[in-house]
Design a protein that fits this description.
Strand 6 and strand 7 (65-69) form a beta hairpin. The protein is built from 4 helices and 9 strands; from the N terminus they run βββαβββββααβα. It has helices at 29-35, 82-85, 89-92, 117-125, and strands at residues 8-9, 14-19, 22-27, 38-42, 49-50, 55-61, 65-69, 74-79, 101-105. The chain has one domain (8-125): OB fold (Dihydrolipoamide Acetyltransferase, E2P) (Beta Barrel). The longest helix is centred in the C-terminal third of the chain and has 9 residues, at 117-125. With 126 residues, the chain is an alpha+beta fold. The radius of gyration is 13 Å and the shape is globular. Helices cover 19% and strands 35% of the residues.
Length: 126
């Protein structure tokens, strides 16, 4: 499994890349592999307020439907609209073109509750 260094990870298998007060969020390689072929992504609206651990959408695959959970609180700043027509990007490039949303964080201290790459590797190897 690909677990890039420099990102933060939730126990719900979302990754977070931080740039200032903006967090880019997607699902991990482990999550996309467990889901199988992604066929639909339900995205939130730009401007929606979100609290950490709240559901902000769903990913539907050939195997199941999984909720997406916000790893941090804030406001949805952008959504990856390309996923509407190409949901397979979550499978093909989960850490790149398969990003899901960006959130302008309201409390950057929430990042301290997330896992680093080593911690996430330990979680998925259990």
């Amino acid at each position: 499994m690909n677990v890039p260094e420099g990102l933060r990870y939730s126990s719900d298998h979302e990754w977070v890349a931080v740039d200032g007060d903006v967090a880019r969020i997607g699902i991990t390689d482990y999550a996309q592999d467990a889901l199988g072929d992604v066929v639909y992504v339900d995205l939130p609206r730009t401007g929606d307020a979100i609290a950490a651990a709240d559901s902000f959408g769903e990913v539907e695959s050939t195997k199941s439907v999984s909720e997406l959970y916000a790893p941090v609180s804030g406001e949805i700043a952008a959504v990856n609209d390309e996923l509407a027509d190409a949901p397979e990007k979550l499978n093909e490039d989960p850490y790149g073109e398969g990003w899901i949303v960006t959130i302008t964080m309201s409390d950057a201290a929430e990042l301290d509750g997330l896992l680093d790459a080593d911690g996430y590797r330990a979680l998925i190897e259990e």
